[in-house]
Amino acid sequence: MIRVIALTDAGRLLGERIQCFLSEQHRLSELWFKPQPFTETIQQAFKEGDALLFICATGIVVRTLAPVINNKHEDPPILVVDELGQFVIPLLSGHEGGANQWGDEIANVIGAQLVMTTAKPYLKPIYAVGMGCERHCSEEELIKLLKSCLCEANISIDDICSINSIDIKADENGLINCAASFNKPYHTFDKSQLSTVEHLLSTKSDYVFDTVGVYGVAESAALVAAQNETGDVAELVLNKVKTKKATCAIAKSYMKD
Fold first, then answer.
1. Angle CA(114)–CA(120)–CA(125) in degrees, nearest 5?
2. How many CB atoms lie within 10 A of CB 119?
């Protein structure tokens, strides 16, 4: 979940604009205007792993979050934007949490200047696709879904390193042929591997868990595949998209120098 926090009327207008963009990207978000009690509400959202975008002074954010900051591998991404929308600052979890990339996206949308202070901020992104489907889902339906998702994420098939799913789909001809049609490797992972990224899922399905033992196949497979490619943490760039018979998600990680 992404929380957009605004403390002034001008900030709220900018927050509504940012939230509109997030909705168009199918990212689950909520605009909080002067949330009360402020400190407790913000700290609890941080502890729960919500990505936070503040439209206010940086000092307010630092003082509020200081008591609950843990480390760069666990803390969620934090952005700070001034109420005029001139500057976007990735404050926490720039590389590991994806705040740098997220900040770049927001800066482009609102026409702001991205202010990054981390070293070597521009690393090569590696994308992976995760897919799930009903048994005997057709190759044509899967290809159509994947093309639609690539378009929605504004990336091409050339950017994708692999197509991935759960191990019970290792013999699923539709998925195998879909990957082959794009000349991409097809990998599957067991539920113990997929469960390691459970905390990064946009949503969790009890039905899917009861059926296959994980809370989401497409998102989990994409995240694990992206992380395996780089050895670093991954993030979803496209949350699960679902049709009647299939699901697709796209994750990204960064290749370090």
1. 80
2. 7
